[in-house]
Design goal:
Layout (H helix, E strand, L loop, with lengths): L1 H14 L1 H15 L10 H8 L4 H5 L6 E7 L14 H11 L2 E8 L5 H4 L8 H16 L6 E5 L5 H9 L7 E4 L10 H12 L5 H11 L11 H12 L15 H19 L3 H4 L2 H14 L4 H12 L6 H8 L16 H6 L2 H11 L8 E2 L2 E2 L7 E4 L7 E4 L24 E4 L4 E6 L9 E9 L2 H9 L7 E5 L4 H4 L8 H9 L4 E5 L12 E7 L12 E5 L4 E4 L24 H6 L13
Parallel strand pairs: 1-2, 1-3, 3-4, 11-12, 12-13, 13-14
Antiparallel strand pairs: 5-6, 7-8, 9-10, 10-14, 11-15, 15-16
Helix pairs in contact: 5-12, 7-8, 8-15, 9-10, 9-21, 11-14, 14-15
Amino acid sequence: MLTQINEVKKRIDARSQKTRTEYLKKIEIWKTKSPNRNNLGCSNLAHTFAACGQKGKSENLNIKKFIGIITAYNDMLSAHAPFEAYPKKLKKEAEKLNLHVQVAGGVPAMCDGITQGEPGMELSLFSRDTIALSTAVGLSHNVFDSAICMGTCDKIVPGLLMGALQFGHLPVIFIPGGPMSTGISNEAKSESRKSFAAGEISKIDLLEIEQQAYHSPGTCTFYGTANTNQLIAEAMGFQLPGSAFTPSDSPLRELLNAESLKSLMRLMDSEIGIGEMLDINNWLNAMIVLLASGGSTNLVIHLIAMARCAGYIISPEDFNNLSSVIPLLCQVYPNGKADVNEFHAEGGIARLLTNLLDADLIYENIQTVAGLGLQKYTKIPAINDSNENNLDWREVDFELITATSIRTAKNPFKNNGGIKFIGGDIAEGVIKVSALEKENEIITGPARVFTSQEDVLNAFELNELNADLIIVLLGQSPTSNGMPELHKLTSPINVLQSKGYKIALVTDGRMSGASGSFPALIHAVSINNNLYKIQDNDQLTLDLKKAIFSIENFDSEREPIHIESNGFGLGRELFSIFRSNVGSVSNGASIFYE
């Protein structure tokens, strides 16, 4: 099967030859210039050691290796609250290994779960590139031999990696916080949201239910963008095996963090920088596991942007081509009933990677922070039987563990990956099919055109959407308003579905990684501005089988609608420079590349 995957690999390699070569040349130059401790002036060095105590000042600069931490800690995000204690503990471990650890900088980390449906969501996608910039600032002092990036959630991991790749000469390892324990089931949570949208329960009742779902430090337990990041981090090898979904409060967590320092020592001794380590096979592995797991569509955008920072040019078509080869091997909510804790208990990432390797559907020969070979990521971390301070990775016979959320390639949930790419003369975009019961259905209906999420919700409240129709929500692109997620539409549309109506959504915005329960053509890029020429009652067809979006008797000479962007309040004015300079969604919607 790798033969077909290799065809995609060849195309990426060919179009990336110039940019990847230039990137690797920069790495070689900075290997000779970094770190710069021996050439810094005494005043510069004094600033470096000022907060470290007297001991640091008198040490020979070459005795210890310096490790800089870039942290996304704040205690507003449950997923990032655990990071508060990590630096202090890592510094204690570093002393045993004759390493010097400092927090080099912090990056912003916002929660889409808080800003969903609110103006602040318009900063969400742009926060990724802001995090990349902040990471660069933190490492710009050029005194570090390697770096640790601490982050878990939606835009945070992509932003950290994009920033770290600008320091591709440095060994870098990522440390996550792990998931919170399972509270109320995701299915029950979804049903309660539908009940609230239908007016069957009060807001205080819904809040009580939601607090049972989000109840402690750690990542949310559904398989959204945050946890898709975590799966990809292991499949690419820039995070230790088993670290993604080891629970936040597990005693294994501290051992994994300590092992991260040992891994960095090996990488420093071997002079393996993250930019060299993440070669083409690593990036293909990320794309493969995204499809095989039915992960978040947000990662299509993020992977394109991340890879570009390493000199690789990936296109949406590459995902499309892989999707015809890679089967869907996982069902984790919203694609199934299991949450990530149940997925992890059934073998999780190690089992998925084992199944992909057995089917020759993923590259084993990659360099990782754990050493050479993806095979290392098919083992499970465990506390050493004879020494509780040591960590082992153990081989497991996964056939002895009953699993409902993971299958083999011989018996997949679906024969194609969890994402389809839709084309046509009107627009191009993606649709998440991993959670759809009828992934090949044809949806035909009149258009209802909106230019804000609030207008859609108001129309729902007024019972104006009780029909078979296709909702067209425009003005949600990166240049319009920052491309917010539109997850707040999920429950109302689910209510319409439960009433028996055939409903679909077409938008140039994003949906949450926790979405996918109804057909949604998202990330839509308009062809000749045709998407903006759609009018109410136009007869639309979303053909999922042929992967085409079309309009009956379409008049391409129509004038497109013009949408005025609001863009003020809650800091949005500051991001006008992002909206004016952001590149296309097809290129990762980044301010760094057109």
